[in-house]
Every structure is written in structure tokens, then in C-alpha cells.
């Protein structure tokens, strides 16, 4: 009796599982379709695309569209390709991610381990920053950047992203440090470590997992941002996303779809790389051993 | 003037006072244990000595200098935490020397101090490991090493053994005691385990509800508990407490209480001052080991009284046999030698060592004799 019912349980289990897998694989394929289209068409000559058959594999394989997108496509006035804009993005993203992550960590540290009056209210206000829509801050921010003499610069753009990202990074680090054993901080205090020594020597080395989360989040958001880039960047500080848009929008005459596809993939590559590289360091249990458990 | 003075100290969180006028003076080389049930304020008091919690009022002095407001690292104390609080990202060696490094000790000296401590605690082979790669007992040793290496005036321990399993706890207890005897350092040690308190301490402060109930040597606490709380908290199984009346017989005070069938037993007190309580009700405290079979009674006692009562349950526990019965309407436990011949339902003659009996005022619960 019990054996039979267990048997059916296993069988229904197997059927549902197969069903789930089939559905999931279908969804995955559907989701991957755009990537397939982009990849395939970025290595075809334009004639193959305009001749129809977007879904076909290339008859003639060429990397020409990639080179063109990177270094010679007409963007703005000069035929520079996306390369200079790629470096603009890097120059904006790296300091913005680094600064917002470090500041978030510092905030989280203070908000959990150096509690002060009204700290929860302050944290609530910082959280509020996560929910402010971009559009609302555009004009005030433009004015602020102007006053600070940072209008139209990469530094100005980085500053905007730092300010906008702090709410998120603070949230991440605060929640992470909230469960960080306070006894470790106290032990360090007795050992004579000061505010920043505790932060650098004790807290940060144990913050690997959450730092990775914060970096991935900030990197993708800032790299993919279009609105701030389009609003605050000058002609020579435009980030990749804005340049890609210009490439696609502004080319007169023939639309070089293969070049557009290649450019789009180039623009998406860094975030993909960050996921692939940093995602592996998403290790949990770095805290193991400090506290019995 | 002690080595460590806790002078009329209180602690409040907002409007709630959690420690009330604590007054303890610890001499150099003493091993003071703070013991009490959960939430009684032991850790709070320890953290105030460490400087991790502010002192609301009163004064704490170490070597005659006032510590109020002094940073924890400037008090020359070291602390061992319940969770050990080892820095997870540092090796054992780095954990041990971190405090010295922060205090600016040059590297060669740090290394030397680390080697010495590691040798003392037998953790030399662990120095390059991370805390995550250690067993509970090893972490415990490292935590002690970190405290020892600073050569502090006062050691503070907050329930350092409570995360270990029973066997290891007993071993480490002995080790801590040996260490104290060897180094002669001043220690304040928090625990809620009364056996730990008895075995380790030179003096015990029994705490409850934010008050120090009694401060004394283990012997004083055990034999002359200040009140019912201390009497029942210290000792395992707990002291039996039963209502009794004081009667005078030939001018000598006796304790009168009911046996299992309602008949009355009359046992002579050793303390003559109880005559003042004639006719009044008291609470009589009898430790289980002073209630035995006649052969097992303490030969050195000058006051062994006998009574016959019915055994309700017997519980052999290897070295002893525990016997429970009804006295004064309460369940009372006697502790017998394991070879005493007892069985449930039997009417048995017990010997009571009345020299060790304790009497309490039923109103205030304070001890009135001895
Ligand atoms: N930050 C705080 N705010 C308010 N009350 C507190 C705070 N910290 C501790 N208390 C209260 O102070 C009292 C004493 O706490 P403490 O941690 O000293 O107890 P304990 O004797 O160490 O108990 P345990 O054996 O459980 O560790 C408790 O009633 C606790 O609720
Ligand atoms: Mg405690």
C-alpha cells in the first residue's frame, strides 16, 4: 500500500519535473533568441541581411562590422567608431562604482556599529533615495553640476551616479553588517583599533560577498544608464550607451544593421563580463569560524 | 581600596535601570565570578568594566584610577567573549598579535610574545590557520591567547565555555583554573553555570534582577546563603526549602514540620538564636547531601537528627542515589550513597545534619540562621 503510493509519487514527480524542464528550456530559448539574432547578423555582410533571412546562419562570415563599429563608424561628427565612448564609459563607471561602494560600506558600518540618535530615520531617508525617479532630479542636478563647474564632464557624470547609487549600496552594506557580530567590533575596540582601522582591517576583509553584489549592481546600472548620460554628458564625454544610440539613429543613407548589432553587443559586453567574472566570487560563508556555528 | 573597585555603580537604558547600586571590590590576583540567571545584568556589568558600556552613575576604578569615560583600549584589560570573536580574515597568529600591533609594539616583540603565549596554550601548530579551520576548543584557546598576550591588569571573561560540549567544558574549566594559579592574574568571569562559579572562583557575586544578592567565598555562599534565591540558585540539586515552625523544647529551638502522613517531626536546631522565633513560621533550608541514610551521615557533625518518612521515588545516578519524599507539603530530595538500600514506597529512617540547616524569614526571604 505505502509502497504503491510512494511509487506513484515518484512517477508524478518525474512527469512534473520533465514538464517543468521542457517549459523552462522553451523559455530560455525564447529569451536567447535576440542574442542569437544579434550575433548571427553581426558577422554577415549587409547584403545578406537586407536580402531577408534574419534568422539564417551567415553564408559568408566576416568580422568587418565589428571593426567598423569599434573604430570607424560615423558617430557624431568624426568617424571614430565606438572606441572613444567606450573609454568614456570606463572612466565614468570605475570611479563611480568604487566610490559609491566604499561610501555605502562606510555608511553601513556607521549605521549598524556606531549607532547614534535618529540613525534609523537617516537610513530611512537614504532608502527613500532609491525610489526617486530619475526624471525628477534632471533639472536640479544639471544646475548643481553647472554650479560646481562639472557640467558636461565625465567627473560630473560619475558624481551623479555616485549620489544616485549611495542609497542602494548603503542598503546592501547596512543589511550585511547588521548581522556582522558586534562582539568582533568590541574585541577590536579593546585591542585598540580605531574607527577606520576597524573598518579596513576587520569589516572590509569580511565584506567580499556583499561588495561583489554592490559592484555588480552599480556597474550594470551605471554602464547601462542612458538618461543621465544623454542629459549631462558633453560631446566628448558621452558614454557608450549614448554613442550607440547616435550610431543607430544618426547614420544617414543605408542602415548598417550588421554594424549596429556588433555595436550593441560591444556595449553589452562589459556587464556580461562582470557577471561572468565576479559572479564566481559570490561565495558565501566568508564569515565561517569567527563565531561558533 | 581594591585592585578593581566597582563603586556604587548603576546602569540604565533609558528609564529602565538594569543594574542597581553595585558595590564590589576585587583584590589583586582574585578570581571573581559573576553568576546569575539570564538577564540579571552580568554581561552589562562586565562590559562596563571593559568600557564597552557607559556607566550611568557611580565609579569604576582599576589600580585606583577612575575608568569612567576611559576608552576600552586604555584600561589595560583584556576580554574573552562568549562567541570568541576571532577576526575571521586573520590567521591565529595575527589574531593574537592584533592588539599589540594596534598598541604600537614593534614586530620582533610581538612575535616573541605570540610564541610564548602559543607555547603556554599549546596552540603553536595552529598559528597559521584561520579561525574557520579550528575546532571549538581550539578557538577558545586562541581567544584566551589573544587576551593573555597583552599582559593586562584585569581579565574579563563573558561565558567563555558555554559554547563547548560538556566534556570539553570541564577540561577547559580546569585549564583556566590552572592558568589562573600559574599566572596569578586578576579575573572577572561571567557565567550562569553555578558549578563553574563554585569551582573556579575565589569569590562569587550572585546576581539577580540587577542586584548583587550576595558577595562571598564559594564556601560562604554555599553554607550561608544570604537569601532563598542564593540558596536555591547555588547547588545541584537545589537546596530543599520547606515551611516549618520553631518550637522550644528544654529551652532549645526545634524545627517542626509535617511528614508524608501529616504527623509532625521535631528536629533540634544548632543555632540558639532561633529561640527568638518561637511559635513563628520560618523556611527551613536543607541541602540534599545533608539528608541521608543513617550510615551515610556526616560523622563530624555534632547534630544529627533522625526521622522516618516514606520514600516516593528513587533515582540511582551512578555515584549517588537521589531519593524524593514529601516534607512540609513540599517535594524534598535526599542524596544517598549509591549502595544505600532504598526503594519506593518504603518507610525509611533518614539522618538530617541539622548543623548545616539554614533558616529563612518567610517574609523577606533573608537568612536568619546561621
Ligand atoms: N541595549 C539595551 N537596551 C535595553 N535593555 C538592555 C540592553 N542591553 C541589555 N539590556 C537589558 O539589561 C538586562 C541585563 O542584560 P545582560 O545582557 O547584562 O544579561 P546577562 O546577565 O548577561 O544575561 P545572559 O546570561 O542571558 O547573557 C536585561 O534585562 C536586558 O534586557
Ligand atoms: Mg550575558
- Main β-sheet, spatial strand arrangement of chain B: 6-7-8-3-9-10
Number of helices of chain A: 13
> Would you tell me which CATH topology of the largest domain in chain B applies?
Rossmann fold
Average per-residue pLDDT of chain B, rounded, comes to 92
Q: Would you give the CATH topology of the largest domain in chain A? A: MetI-like fold
Compounds present? adenosine-5'-triphosphate, magnesium ion
Q: How many beta-strand runs of chain B?
A: 21
Q: N- to C-terminal separation of chain B?
A: 29 Å
Total number of domains of chain B: 2
What string gives the helices and strands of chain A in order? HHHHHHHHHHHHH
State the helicity of chain B in percent bands. 10-25%
Beta fraction of chain A: under 5%
- Class of secondary structure makeup of chain B: alpha+beta
At CATH level 2, the architecture of the largest domain in chain A is: Orthogonal Bundle
SSE order of chain B, as H and E?
EEEHEEEHHHEHEHEEHHEEEEEEEEEEE
Q: Which assembly state applies to the chains in this document?
A: heterodimer
How would you name the CATH homologous superfamily of the largest domain in chain B? P-loop containing nucleotide triphosphate hydrolases
Q: What this model shows, in words?
A:
Chain B: One of its GO terms (cellular component) is ATP-binding cassette (ABC) transporter complex, substrate-binding subunit-containing. The complex is a heterodimer of chains A (293) and B (370). With 293 residues, chain A is an all-alpha fold. Chain A folds into 2 domains: 14-62, no CATH class; 83-288, MetI-like fold, CATH 1.10.3720.10. Helices cover 72% and strands 0% of the residues of chain A. Chain A starts with a helix and ends in a 15-residue tail after the last helix. The model of chain A is unreliable at 283-293 (pLDDT under 50). Chain B has 370 residues and is α+β, with helices and mostly antiparallel strands. Chain B has 2 domains: 4-233, 3-Layer(aba) Sandwich (Rossmann fold), CATH 3.40.50.300; 240-360, Beta Barrel (OB fold (Dihydrolipoamide Acetyltransferase, E2P)), CATH 2.40.50.140. Chain B contains 8 helices and 21 strands. In chain B, strands 6-7-8-3-9-10 form a 6-stranded mixed sheet, sandwiched between helices. Chain B has a 6-stranded antiparallel sheet with strand order 13-12-11-14-20-21. Chain B has a 5-stranded antiparallel sheet with strand order 15-19-16-17-18, with no helix packed on it. In chain B, α3 packs across α4. Chain B starts with a strand and ends with a strand. Classes of the chains: A mainly alpha (293), B alpha+beta (370). Chain A binds chain B through residues 181, 183-184, 186-193, 197, 201-202, 205-206, 286-292, and chain B through 47, 50-52, 71-73, 77-79, 81-89, 98-99, 102-103, 130-134, 136, 139, 146, 163. Adenosine-5'-triphosphate binds next to α1 of chain B. Adenosine-5'-triphosphate binds at residues 13, 18, 36, 38-44, 192 of chain B.
Amino acid at each position: 500500500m505505502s509502497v504503491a503510493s510512494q511509487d506513484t509519487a515518484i512517477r508524478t514527480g518525474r512527469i512534473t519535473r520533465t514538464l517543468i524542464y521542457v517549459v523552462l528550456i522553451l523559455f530560455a530559448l525564447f529569451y536567447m533568441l535576440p542574442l542569437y539574432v544579434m550575433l548571427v547578423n553581426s558577422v554577415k555582410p549587409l547584403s545578406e541581411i537586407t536580402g531577408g533571412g534574419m534568422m539564417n546562419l551567415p553564408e559568408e562570415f566576416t568580422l568587418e562590422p565589428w571593426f567598423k563599429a569599434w573604430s570607424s563608424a560615423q558617430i557624431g561628427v568624426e568617424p571614430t567608431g565606438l572606441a572613444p565612448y567606450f573609454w568614456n564609459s570606463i572612466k565614468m563607471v570605475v570611479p563611480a562604482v568604487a566610490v559609491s561602494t566604499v561610501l555605502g560600506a562606510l555608511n553601513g558600518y556607521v549605521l549598524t556599529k556606531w549607532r547614534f540618535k535618529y540613525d534609523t530615520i537617516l537610513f530611512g531617508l537614504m532608502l527613500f533615495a532609491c525610489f526617486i525617479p530619475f526624471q525628477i532630479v534632471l533639472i536640479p542636478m544639471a544646475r548643481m553640476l553647472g554650479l560646481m563647474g562639472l557640467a558636461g564632464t565625465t567627473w560630473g557624470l560619475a558624481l551623479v551616479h555616485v549620489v544616485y547609487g549611495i542609497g542602494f549600496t548603503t542598503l546592501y552594506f547596512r543589511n550585511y553588517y547588521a548581522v556582522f557580530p558586534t562582539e568582533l567590533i568590541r574585541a577590536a575596540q579593546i585591542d585598540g583599533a580605531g574607527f577606520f582601522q576597524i573598518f579596513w582591517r576587520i569589516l572590509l576583509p569580511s565584506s567580499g560577498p556583499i561588495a561583489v553584489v554592490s559592484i555588480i549592481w552599480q556597474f550594470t546600472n551605471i554602464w547601462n544608464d542612458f538618461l543621465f548620460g544623454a542629459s549631462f554628458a558633453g560631446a566628448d564625454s558621452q558614454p557608450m550607451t549614448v554613442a550607440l544610440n547616435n550610431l543607430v539613429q544618426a547614420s544617414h543613407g543605408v542602415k548598417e544593421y550588421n554594424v549596429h548589432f556588433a555595436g550593441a553587443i560591444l556595449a553589452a559586453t562589459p556587464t556580461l563580463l562582470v557577471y561572468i567574472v565576479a559572479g564566481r566570487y559570490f561565495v558565501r560563508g566568508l564569515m565561517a569560524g569567527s563565531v561558533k556555528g | 581600596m581594591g585592585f578593581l573597585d566597582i563603586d556604587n555603580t548603576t546602569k540604565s537604558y533609558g528609564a529602565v535601570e538594569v543594574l542597581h547600586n553595585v558595590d564590589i571590590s576585587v583584590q589583586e590576583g582574585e578570581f571573581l565570578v559573576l553568576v546569575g540567571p539570564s538577564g540579571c545584568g552580568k554581561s552589562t556589568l562586565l562590559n562596563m568594566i571593559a568600557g564597552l558600556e557607559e556607566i550611568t552613575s557611580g565609579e569604576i576604578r582599576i589600580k585606583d584610577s577612575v575608568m569612567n569615560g576611559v576608552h576600552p583600549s586604555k584600561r589595560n584589560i583584556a576580554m574573552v567573549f562568549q562567541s570568541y570573536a576571532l577576526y575571521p580574515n586573520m590567521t591565529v597568529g595575527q589574531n593574537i598579535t592584533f592588539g599589540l600591533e594596534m598598541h604600537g609594539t614593534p614586530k620582533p616583540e610581538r612575535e616573541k610574545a605570540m610564541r610564548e603565549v602559543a607555547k603556554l596554550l599549546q596552540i603553536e601548530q595552529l598559528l597559521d590557520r584561520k579561525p574557520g579551520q579550528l575546532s571549538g576548543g581550539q578557538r577558545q584557546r586562541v581567544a584566551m591567547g589573544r587576551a593573555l598576550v597583552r599582559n593586562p591588569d584585569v581579565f574579563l571573561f563573558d561565558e567563555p565555555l558555554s559554547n563547548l560540549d560538556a566534556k570539553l567544558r570541564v577540561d577547559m574549566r580546569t585549564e583556566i583554573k590552572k592558568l589562573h594559579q600559574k599566572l596569578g592574574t586578576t579575573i572577572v568571569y561571567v557565567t550562569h553555570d553555578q558549578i563553574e562559579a563554585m569551582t573556579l572562583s575565589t569569590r562569587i557575586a550572585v546576581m539577580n534582577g540587577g542586584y548583587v544578592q550576595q558577595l562571598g567565598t564559594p564556601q560562604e555562599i554555599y553554607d550561608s546563603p544570604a537569601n532563598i534565591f542564593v540558596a536555591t540558585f547555588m547547588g545541584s540539586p537545589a537546596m530543599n526549602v520547606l515551611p516549618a515552625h520553631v518550637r522550644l523544647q528544654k529551652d532549645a529551638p526545634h524545627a517542626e514540620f509535617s511528614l508524608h502522613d501529616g504527623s509532625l517531626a521535631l528536629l533540634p536546631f544548632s543555632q540558639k538564636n532561633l529561640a527568638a522565633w518561637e511559635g513563628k513560621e520560618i523556611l527551613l533550608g536543607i541541602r540534599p547531601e545533608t539528608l541521608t541514610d543513617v550510615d551515610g551521615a556526616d560523622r563530624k557533625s555534632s547534630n544529627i537528627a533522625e526521622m522516618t518518612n516514606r520514600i516516593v521515588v528513587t533515582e540511582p545516578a551512578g555515584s549517588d542515589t537521589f531519593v524524593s519524599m514529601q516534607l512540609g507539603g513540599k517535594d524534598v530530595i535526599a542524596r544517598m550513597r549509591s549502595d544505600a538500600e532504598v526503594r519506593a514506597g518504603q518507610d525509611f529512617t533518614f539522618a538530617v545534619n541539622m548543623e548545616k540547616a539554614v533558616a529563612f524569614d518567610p517574609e523577606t526571604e533573608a537568612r536568619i540562621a546561621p
